[in-house]
């Protein structure tokens, strides 16, 4: 079964959206097989968002994620990487369709509620990084 890495970002946790998001994942029929609610350190978050290290928003993004609790999850199911990205919606809240998690709940570009791996390669890398295994 395919596996992906999902993280409810600090704004999602603070706004009390964990139940809503976990409910959507479960109702879709995907299985959450690991979950960890904790405050990640800066080094872990920098590593996670390594592909964006040259971007002008990198520090803002890393500080935001590392400042508070996140819910890190391993989620399994058929085509789960692609389907979770569809359920999450576009990174820009102005573009994200209603019915998607970001379309329904996000209202800023940096604080967009949730992360999902964007490919098999990043899912492997991120699960290894956040859960020290795959
Ligand atoms: P993630 O699942 O978080 O990786 O989002 P994504 O894959 O939909 O988008 P991308 O990887 O391109 O960007 C990573 C994150 O950086 C986004 O989710 C936003 O939180 C943030 N981000 C992206 N673009 C901008 C931007 O132009 N300005 C700011 N401030 N933040 C941005
Ligand atoms: Mg991304």
Automatic annotation (TrEMBL):
It is found in: Cytoplasm. GO terms for biological process: CTP biosynthetic process; GTP biosynthetic process; UTP biosynthetic process. Its main location: cytoplasm. Residues 1-134 form the Nucleoside diphosphate kinase-like domain. InterPro entries: NDK-like_dom, NDK-like_dom_sf, Nucleoside_diP_kinase, Nucleoside_diP_kinase_AS. The keyword RNA-binding does not apply. Its EC number is 2.7.4.6. The active site is at 115 (pros-phosphohistidine intermediate). Its cofactor is Mg(2+). SUPFAM superfamilies: Nucleoside diphosphate kinase, NDK. It catalyses: a 2'-deoxyribonucleoside 5'-diphosphate + ATP = a 2'-deoxyribonucleoside 5'-triphosphate + ADP; a ribonucleoside 5'-diphosphate + ATP = a ribonucleoside 5'-triphosphate + ADP. Gene3D superfamilies: Nucleoside diphosphate kinase-like domain. ATP binds at residues 9, 57, 85, 102, 112. Belongs to the NDK family. Major role in the synthesis of nucleoside triphosphates other than ATP. The ATP gamma phosphate is transferred to the NDP beta phosphate via a ping-pong mechanism, using a phosphorylated active-site intermediate. Homotetramer. NCBIfam families: PRK00668.1. This is Nucleoside diphosphate kinase. The gene is ndk.
